[in-house]
Amino acid sequence: MGICVTKSQNHIVSGSHVDIQAPNPTPPIPPKEEQKAPTEALRKKYTRPKQKLVSIPTDGPETEQEIVPVFGRKLHLEGTPSTQAQSGFEDKKVKIVTENFSLELLGKAGIGYACKKGLKPESPNQDDFCIVLDNDTILLGVFDGHGPCGHHVSAFVHTDMTRLILDSPDLHIAPTTAIRSAFIATNERLKDYCRESKGDCDCSISGTTASIALIQGRKMYIAHVGDSRVVLGRKTPASFETVELTIDHKPTLPEEQKRIEANGGEVKKLPFDIPYRVFVYGTEDPGLSMSRSIGDTVSQNVGVTCEPELREVDLEGDQGSFVLMCSDGVWEFIKNEEAVDLVSKFSRATARQGAEKLAQLAWMRWLHNEEEVVDDITVVVSFVPKV
Predict the structure, then answer these.
(1) Which of 65, 273, 359, 360 has most Cβ atoms within 10 angstroms of its Cβ?
(2) Going by C-beta distance under 8 Å and a sequence separation of 6 or more, which residues neighbour residue 201?
(3) Which alpha helices (DSSP H) does 50-140 contain, by range?
């Protein structure tokens, strides 16, 4: 969440062992006037052929499903913008892009997800995600949009970046090259997309985080910009060890602040605000609370970068471990260890229920601490593939 939201310093509810009940959805609130969606012709130019929008329940069979084969992938699903106002904690609409899909297949793969609309009446759900299985390759992504057009930006970025990575000739010979190139190219293509949208989508003060996990055999490649954190729940003989795989890109990190200041930016905290933000020197704009992102062209003019931080992880011996990727709607009030402890109570086959429970806990923490404000919440969990 890159925009300014005042947060209280109230005590955080403790313990993930509590029996969590699903929160009561809030009634939909008509959104304030917002940016018009880009034209269909422009969407088609930059994205894949149109897929059917579907709504998949947490339990039970999928509904309104239409299977559309694209690229012959075994399993591919991703978030898509809603066409109408949504209630608080309502599920993100999902696109299915695969030859054969079922919740059972997702469970067999040990993958679960939850993407929930927060309590921000002026904004639709700006979070997005992607899950792709292709033979021995798993690609996971979490994207947290921010700013007036953050939902348009995250929708474009997650689709475009996924395609660029999967279509890269370097995917299997130099995975980090494929991923890094996709981050840089997507940032440029987003700017072209916004210019051609004639004001319908603007990334000058709107952008998104991007966190990618690419698993190939016993190797995992992590890349990220922003604060959609990735952790590993590493199985040990006694329990689970928590390993943080990404560092939130805050502008106060020494190297990040040095780069920003060298490019004419300023890192400061405004009165009555909580996070430090990036500003054009001597002004109070634009006020981005992270040092790396996709989009945010005004901030990129003063040192914010789309250059991802990359990490390679050896998964040898990690049978039973899992990767957990979440937007900061989860991490704002939940520590890494608590999240891993909660998800570890679920099996490979019930990974989706684990993702739902973590999303529910995050929702309750927001209500306890903020009462009337809840950020969008996204959880993607993937157990390390069986050999």
Answers:
(1) 359
(2) 35, 38, 149, 152, 153, 156, 193, 194
(3) 103-108
Q: Which amino acid is at 113?
A: Y
Which letter does DSSP use for residue 373 in this model?
-
| Backbone Cα Rg of the chain | 19
Chain centroid offset of residue 50 CA: 22
Dihedral (Cα; 362, 315, 165, 174), 10-degree rounding: 150
Paired tokens of 198: 């004639």
The identity of residue 360, as a single letter, is: Q
11-26 pLDDT per residue, tens: 222 333 333 344 544 4
Give, to the nearest 10 degrees, the angle between helix 336-343 and helix 351-370: 140
pLDDT tens digits for range 146-176: 999 999 999 999 999 999 999 999 999 999 9
Judge contact between 37 and 81, C-beta under 8 A. yes
- pLDDT per residue as tens digits for the range 241-260: 999 999 999 999 999 999 99
Exposure pattern of 161-176 as b/e (b: 16+ CB <10 Å)? Answer: bbbbbbebeebeeebb
**Location of structure tokens 């052929």:** 49
**Amino acid at position 267, single letter:** V
Task: List, in order of start, the domains of the chain with CATH numbers.
Answer: 40-248+310-383 (3.60.40.10)
Handedness of CA 283, 289, 291, 293 (dihedral sign): negative
DSSP secondary structure string for all residues of 255-279: HHHHHHHHTTEEEE--TT--S-EEE
Nearest alpha carbon to residue 226 among 211, 241, 213, 216: 211
Q: Is 217 helix (H, G, I), strand (E, B) or coil?
A: coil
List the structure tokens of 226: 């922003």
42 falls in which pLDDT band (50, 70, 90)? Answer: low
The mean-pLDDT minimum among 225-229, 236-240, 362-366 falls in: 236-240
Strands of the chain (E only): list them: 53-54, 75-80, 93-96, 111-116, 127-134, 137-146, 207-208, 210-216, 219-225, 230-235, 240-244, 265-268, 277-280, 286-288, 294-295, 309-314, 322-326, 377-383
